[in-house]
Amino acid sequence: MNKETSRFAVECLVSGNNTANAIHAIFSKKHINNLCKKSYIAIMDRKKYMRIYIAIIVLLFIHLFVGKFYDEPYPSLLFPAFSETPKEKNVFEIKFLKLYVVDNTNDTLLVEKEDLLPLIAIHIPHALETIKLKEEIINDSVNNHGTQKQQRLLNGIVLKKKSLMKLMATTLKQKFPDKTFSWLIINEGVRRYDTKTQNKEGEILSSNKTIIKLL
Amino acid sequence: MKILDRISFSSYFISPKNLSVYRIIYCLLILTFSGLRSYAWIGNDFDYLFDPPKISIANIFNDFPGNNFFIVLTILNVILFFLMFCGLWTKYTSILFSLTCILGANFIYSFGKIDHNILVLITPLIGGLAGWGNYYSIDERRNRSKIELTPRNREYISFLIAVFALFIGFSFFSAGIVKVYKGWWHINVQAIKYHLYLNYYYLGRDKYLAGYFLRFNSVAFWKFLDYFIIFFELGFLVSVFNRKVFQYFLVSAVVFHFIVLLIYNINFSGNLLVYLLFIDWDKLTTYLKRHFKLNSIKYFIIIYASFMLILWIIKFVSEPKLVELPSFMDFFLPAINLPTLADDISAFISIPVLFFILFIHLQKKKLSTVDK
Question: What is chain A's alpha carbon radius of gyration, rounded to the nearest angstrom?
């Protein structure tokens, strides 16, 4: 058998094609064994790889389940689903987020996310959630005097907060050098848009403000 | 199990020579369009915002590690990138490059939002294992990694590429299945239009065709899009079991990303770099050989990479705190007053090119599995 034919036989065996049966019919098993020893190993490899492949599929589905019903792990192969759906037809309720800063003369200024923490501007909505959550923890702990250990933890959180607020104030100072800001106001809420009337402003359904001391 | 028996890993085979061309192109595109991000700005000032994913390496820590950790991580990341590019200990540098990228990204996503660029980050890991450093590399010159292409090696490479295709299919599927679960299929729900409003008003993404489509009120059109997206995303996972069908889905994915960019202003150009792996490499390399002198391409690449490396070293020496590797576009676009469009320009250029070269693959009568 020439080189081309043996290569063809190897190809057939590796791909698990029906033609492999034909090759068996033409040549004796011993002959094939001698010629295609490597390809038999490849067939065994294919079985091994198939088992690994199936295991990977199972793991991916576990990953999907954990990511959607517990917490998205990292690294994660899950793509963003953009899965939220509107409650009503033709009427959409959309969140809004406005950030204001108040200077020492009580002037209020609307700022962009980039003005506050430019390096993590894209993470700001999530970061603000963390800030509000920790504000609540601090307020609860201040109201209910805990154990000594809890107090130490609280002091740690307060120190970290001070450090972040200082960073925000410094960043704002760089953007607005002639002003000194002392408060941050997070204004969040929901606006309602009617897709038929196309009113760009929308109707405000709810709005609430969180005030945080910067300096 | 029947559908799994029909998978032909060998249909995903890419020869090590072509994989090595892909390595060079992958690195060139990173250098030109995205650069490598810096982690050096992360420090203890942000500890108050530390909220890592619960199942992640970052969650081992109580706070962000110190600033020096991130400076070292960024420098290591850049050095590994250049070692991978020139092909020195390519298998290991590629794997480590992926791992440093993933570790850095893990800390960046510890602010609460996870970006979904993982496929780009694991490409070097898969490439390194599949032998994308065997040619056009220092390793080749040192004659360490020149491997004989046995059926066993072919099966191994094919398997790795097939797994990578599975990852792509699964990623789309994961988005699709959640849409079904959350009720996108319901006839009264206009999900895509709702997300257009959300992007436009909440996130301020109002560029390109966003405003035009916001005013477009055909219920049938929007519902058709909802169903189309669900079937497209769910079907992607099934498509990986047939190489040719998978190719159709990749072509569709490129069009999908283009529409998403125009309407939602979300740039997924990183994913294009991943789909590039599945083009017809034989055709591309034949074209390159026919129309260009290989030596001139080689010298151009060496000069270009050296130029970018020198720029990084100069930047690093002058501002040691800013250790990121800026892309060529980061240098070039501000010079012509177009800094904010850098990412979108890369997408607008690469989408039609990639669409064209992915489509070429489909025009062949039989998918090539033979190493040339």
Answer: 32
